[in-house]
Amino acid sequence: MLPPILELTSVTRAYGSRLALDDVDLALQPGELTLLVGPSGAGKTTLLKLINREIRPTSGQVWVDGIPAHSLKASRVAELRRRVGVVFQDFKLLPRLTALENVAFALHVTDLHVSEEEARERSLDALEAVGLGERGRAFPHQLSGGQQQRVAVARAVVAGPSLLIADEPTGNLDQETAWEMMDLFVDIAAWGTAVLIATHNVEIVTRLQRRVVTLVDGRLVRDQPAGQTGRMAWLATS
Q1: Which residues in the chain come in under a pLDDT of 50?
Q2: Alpha-carbon gap, residue 80 to 67, rounded angstroms
Q3: Strands 84-87 and 67-68: what pairing?
Q4: CA distance 67 to 95
Q5: How far apart are CA 103 and CA 120, in angstroms?
Q6: Has this prediction a pTM greater than 0.70?
């Protein structure tokens, strides 16, 4: 078996006296799509922030594609973020840039040495991969919510990350568009990228039948393998 792309070992994160995460162990393999569920305040966003090195754990270790995020110096954070693509619920596109420019901008941020020509070619490829190859010149306000989220996904994968994390990526989408987005995440995992998605969407989790990990009060209380997901998984989230 290949080494995990993501590995959390005995991870605890405290905010004062409150434990946002409490002794969490989790590993993700290349090409594995995992759904992260739990009630509001369970620690899902904190876990994603630890992976992207926005915060550090109070104790424990966070390894991302062989990089120790838990002890990483500030000078190496950009190196880690080249290996982690991030998709947000509210898209976070720059309104004055076109779809193509939004994707290319993200590539320039993660790789200061990439040329304008290479950034454009790679950004076009990323937009093609998410089904928006013909909308590169469109500005965010000219795109539907689903199309904006696809641009956000293209931006997240343009640098070829080993891991993609998404925080409620279907929260602002209708059910049909949400399913289209999940199909896209399935395709990304099939390319070999590990994908971790925090979600409250019961129907998606139940029907998708992928691995589901459940957080409650900062503790990982359930880890269900792919194909074994039923509505019982949601008892812990109500």
Answers
A1: 232-238
A2: 7
A3: unpaired
A4: 33
A5: 9
A6: yes
